[in-house]
Specification:
138 residues; alpha+beta; three-stranded antiparallel sheet
């Protein structure tokens, strides 16, 4: 499987030489195959030393995830499938990290929302009042 790059977004492409791969035996069931075949894929990407994206994007990613992003996959029996899954997860994590959340604009509750809240509190109070033991006056 010869990749030359991992395209995360249109303007964010990681070259293959920046990805550090390591393979090991997978855990779990599978008998001799799981004990001997090195199917677990682990990919590491150093955010700081990379040339992918802009410096601002890399700074944002390092603040959110740290200097090194590591993804381990041993979901499949095949090393190639685990490798592809690791690349997909890395791209998804980077896309998630690049999204800048929009700040919430504070608003006041509407008149109907206030009325509904007060009505709900009154209903709840009446319900609790009905649960009480009747007094001697009743």
């Amino acid at each position: 499987m010869a990749l030359s790059h991992l395209k995360v977004t249109e303007g964010f492409v990681i070259e293959d030489h920046e990805l550090d791969w390591q393979f090991s035996t997978s855990s779990g069931p599978g008998g001799q195959h799981a004990n001997r075949a090195q199917t677990r894929a682990e990919v590491r990407w150093n955010v700081i030393t990379s040339t992918a994206g802009t410096a601002q994007q890399r700074s944002l990613l390092s603040q959110r995830f740290g200097e090194l992003i590591t993804i381990r996959v041993d979901k499949h029996r095949s090393q190639n499938r685990n490798r592809q899954e690791a690349l997909d997860r890395l791209a998804a994590k980077i896309r998630e990290g690049l999204q800048v959340p929009t700040s919430r604009k504070g608003t006041r509750p509407s008149r109907s929302a206030k009325r509904k809240r007060i009505d709900a509190k009154a209903r709840r109070g009446r319900l609790k009042q009905q649960r009480r033991r009747p007094s001697l006056d009743d």
